[in-house]
Amino acid sequence: MNITLDFAWLEAVMLAGVRMIAFLVVAPPFSFNAFPLRIKGMLALGLALAVAPRVVPGYASPDTGGFIVALLLEIVVGGVLGFLVLVVFSAIQSAGNLIDLFGGFQLAQGFDPQSMVNGAQFTRLYQMTALALLFASGGYQLILGGLTRSFAALPVGGGIDLAVPMQAITAAVGQMLLASVQIAGPLIVVLFLADAGLGLLTRVAPALNAFALGFPLKILITLTLGAAGFMALPGIVASLTDDAVTSMWGVR
Fold first, then answer.
1. For 22, phi and psi rounded to 5 degrees?
2. What does the alpha-carbon distance between residue 67 and residue 45 come to, in Å, rounded to a whole number?
3. Domain boundaries in the chain?
4. Does the pLDDT value for residue 2 go beyond 70?
5. What confidence tier does 3 reach under pLDDT thresholds 50, 70, 90?
6. Is the peptide bond before 155 cis (omega within 30 degrees of 0)?
7. Dihedral of the CA atoms 147, 236, 162, 83 (nearest 10)?
């Protein structure tokens, strides 16, 4: 019995799988340690087989040196696309970090080895909620769909113009900082006004020692308004998912 192997098909699928696994290692929510490496590898292989009809046509099998170069290029492409998604979703974690910083919770920060997050209560709460919403709303399917469509703009082994992803990364970092301030901004302003009010009260009545009330007052304000910001997370996650997919499509 003769078994014929299509090496061009195997090479194309392998290169697609390398891009997939590089993306899954970097991009949330698949980058978390809660997902075992075996699951990431199986998911990358399944996705590579799913996009085989798209990546195989037009693929020209190179020599050994060309294939190694194409392999390295696919690692770079997958890592860049995953980093774009990581930067966009870091806005929620950064917003929680700002709330912890201005609300007085930063002293209770800790490291979560599963999600690789170092932060206090609101940082981890916002990050875990965003992760749950991403799966509950099916947003992860939209991210994977954007990844599979990247093969139309960036064929396997075709390389990438590094100037374009650098511009996209720069824009994504600026967007992340702006989004984190927009999410946590109202609460930060209220906490600043509370500190200013306590300062004025101390100037008017020094014997009152108003700053002794500052810590419990800021905790009360943070818990009250932080819950209001928590209710807005579904819309924020939906908007950030669209931004992440748009960032991936913008890389050529």
1. -65, -35
2. 19
3. 7-249
4. no
5. low
6. no
7. -70
Buried/exposed 224-243: b ≥16 CB within 10 Å, e otherwise: ebbeebeeebeebbeebbeb
Give the separation between CA 86 and CA 150, rounded to whole angstroms.
17
Q: At residue 205, what is the residue type?
A: A
Spatial distance between the Cα atoms of 101 and 187, rounded to a whole number of angstroms = 11
**57-107 residue pLDDT tens:** 777 777 777 778 888 888 888 888 888 788 777 777 788 888 877 777 777
- Of 25-39, 96-110, 163-177, 220-234, give the lowest mean pLDDT range: 163-177
pTM of the model: 0.74
Could you give the count of Cα atoms lying within 13 Å of 174 in the half-sphere of its Cβ? 6
Which token pair is 147?
A: 């990844």
CA dihedral 45, 51, 54, 60 (to 10 degrees): 0
For 107-153, give the DSSP string. GG-EEETTTTEEE-HHHHHHHHHHHHHHHHTTHHHHHHHHHHHHHHH
Spatial distance between the Cα atoms of 184 and 91, rounded to a whole number of angstroms: 10
Could you tell me the CA-to-CA distances from 190 to 181, 210, 228 in Å, in that order? 13, 17, 13
Supply φ then ψ for residue 61, to 5 degrees.
-70, 120
pLDDT, one tens digit per residue, over 146-169 is 778 777 777 776 666 666 666 766
Residues sharing a CB contact under 8 Å with residue 128, sequence separation 6 or more, in sequence order: 115
